[in-house]
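Lecture 7 notes: from sequence to structure.

We start with a single chain of 71 residues. Read the sequence below before looking at the structure.
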Amino acid sequence: RKEEVENRNKADQTAFGARKFLKDNGDKVPADKKADLERVVSRLEEAVKSNDDAGMKSGMEELEKVFQPIV
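Now the structure, written as tokens:
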């Protein structure tokens, strides 16, 4: 139970941080990369809303892969 809560909090914070990055730096990110990032963040947010533990873990991994080349 504790691990699920920690995973949910981490996923929520990760999605929030990515949204904030997009808001603050969206004009500096190429359109195709921005679209990929928005798609992955949306999927992660949906996993958080539905409390899908596996979806949150895979969403964070995918977000990291998409986010890495941008920063």
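The mean pLDDT is 94. Keep this in mind for problem set 3.
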